[in-house]
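Question: Send over one sample?
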Amino acid sequence: MRRIYEPFAYDGAARQACSWDLPTGDWQDLQGDETAEFAIIGGGYTGLSAALHLAQAGAQGVMVLEAESPGWGASGRNGGFCCMGGAKADDAALARRFGQQAAQDFHDAQREAIDLVAQILDTHGIDAQTHSDGEVILAHRPGAVKGLKEEAAHLKARGVGSTFIPRGDLAKHGMAGPQFHGALHVPIGFALNPGKYAQGLAHAAQNAGADIRAHTPVRGIRRKNGLYILTTPKGRVTAKRLILATNGYSSDDLPGWLRARYMPVQSNIIVTRALSPDELNAQGWTTDLMAYDSRVLLHYFRLMPDGRFLFGMRGGVGAAPHDQARMHARIRKDFHRMFPAWADVETPDFWSGLACLSRGLTPYAGPIGDWHNAWAGLAYHGNGVAMGTYTGAILAKLALGNAPARHPAIMQAPLARFPLGRYRRLLLAASYRWYGMLDGR
């Protein structure tokens, strides 16, 4: 496989101290040769959602091929933010590139994506430890306050009510912090336990009739007589239709069309031990709202129902053990600066995972080049809980030969290749330095 990071990023070591339990189930690996009507590569939110929607529509022969176990990748190690997002480009940039109507259509899709996750949780009785009435964006410096007020006006034009909270009122909303100069509360979305959601989604798909194979990495894809032959370590699958759902854990040669069309980026998370009421009050952070700051290289954080505090950030160009140690030190430093009352609080859990960017900074759900009956979904820019689930539903419709109820033009834009090919992660180093200067770290 042709991946752009060191092996550490793709083995179990990077998630060894992850807070979320991996989904468990009666999942067999593939042994020998089998056939499928629909072969789905990847058992994260996108692949499992596609499998669920296919099976619920009555499709037969739906097989998910997962290299490890369902939810092992980003779907089982993210921050649990089911919220608006999916593109890194802002609405103004999207409107310039695609037009106002397309930007509105994509905005509506983001809201529908959140509703879809809520519907799946409710329909299948998944207890994912949900909380938070939407999300809050915090101005990390005085100059960012104007941007939050402009965002509030922009959201109002999109039909979304939001509330601006001035700095003097942050404490009474349970959002005190020395670096926060105001906040914008957007009451859309909720937080969840991503591992429990992946577990529930996997079992829902299996109960609907999907065949989930774990520990079955696909090593090669070959086309023959209009069919797809997928090679795994212990066998092969011959399928009529193919869905690729590997996102940041993709490989440049599976298939070759994917080469340099995606950029995996590392996201890092620490989680504290349970904090006491006195500790929470000492810092002044008692809200359970999902939160992130206004930096381009943002920090994201939330107080979880069990009293532990999750704090995450992007960063890291290398993925060897010493790089992981360096990121651990860096995230602790930022955590201490932003929440100084908790400087001595233990953070026993620390892990990293791979999110995924596209060169156009928009998600993709569409065909794999000129391949017949083959589709891919990827590049959620760190917001894959809702958008990955939604993309899976779109891919299921496409694989059934049906038009999705909504398939935003922004998500159909062809994926352009990044420069530098297999060495493209070097672009991140310059980008991180530049954005760090803009953020005024």
Q: What stands out?
A: The chain has a mean pLDDT of 96.
